[in-house]
């Protein structure tokens, strides 16, 4: 066998192996016994908000429906004209029993507007235990129980969660975004953690006020684009562990156009490349269909190379069905969609090396390497 097809075949098999191992980890997590917290301390749940996306009301309402003895919901916006305030008014009317605080404050404390929003909200948090969660996250009723149970483990400084992708619209862009999260990010993140990585994911960041004060408060990450990763690194630097709660909420994938999806995923890609350049470079091995397609090209379309391509595609499809079944997700990974998703992922991977500028809700920022930036 010529050298180039041999090398690309090996890369394709490496990608398939990663996919299968990650899929098995997803299944194991889904089947693991549910942890029960020995104590259930009161929690302040902080939700920084900005605007309305598809499913915003549904996502926010899931936090009003959490089954937990005592928790406070603190919502923060930076403008009195923000349409999400109308959504909150409806939710508060439907759930008058909930302890809700809404903070409207335009003060900026650094380049990261989300963290500035959280800094403005923090004085209103009544309880020692803080759970910070993104606006577009959908959680089950047992969300806080699982997070608190993980926080109770010895020497835990911060708890985070994985997440799945929920298409916010029937548009192709939404389906492609969910496909990437569910079948590439999710198994890949679990495999990375199995290999020793302790990443903090911004969908959920749970810690105490004491730990937050030890690392310098939210002001320590107010100038970082990757605020979640930097926050996690600061907690680890203090000698704490970073826990992963046994709950997987869903995040809305709101994009209706391929251009919007491209800009969103390019921001992710450039941020990850800046934070962990070597692992990110190696992540090209996840693109098993890309390597299988190169094998067909380098082998001159030989029959065996097409057999390899179909085998990789069939394996990827079977793995996606297993993830759907384990997490009870709606089917969003038809074979043609997996092929189109691989093309998009390849384009984004290449584009991630062409610059560091990113677009975040209309704000131009630069991906940083996780170093704490000072004002």
- Average pLDDT, all residues: 93
CATH architecture of the largest domain: Alpha-Beta Complex
- Tell me the count of domains: 2
Low-pLDDT sequence parts: none
The tally of strands reads 12
Query: What structural class do the secondary elements suggest?
Result: alpha/beta
Radius of gyration: 21 Å
Can you say what the CATH homologous superfamily of the largest domain is?
A: Spore Coat Polysaccharide Biosynthesis Protein SpsA, Chain A
Please, how many helices?
Answer: 13
Portion of residues in helices? 40-55%
Strand order of the largest sheet: 3-2-1-4-8
CATH class of the largest domain: Alpha Beta
For the report, how would you describe the main beta sheet? 5 strands, mixed
Q: Enter the CATH topology name of the largest domain.
A: Spore Coat Polysaccharide Biosynthesis Protein SpsA, Chain A
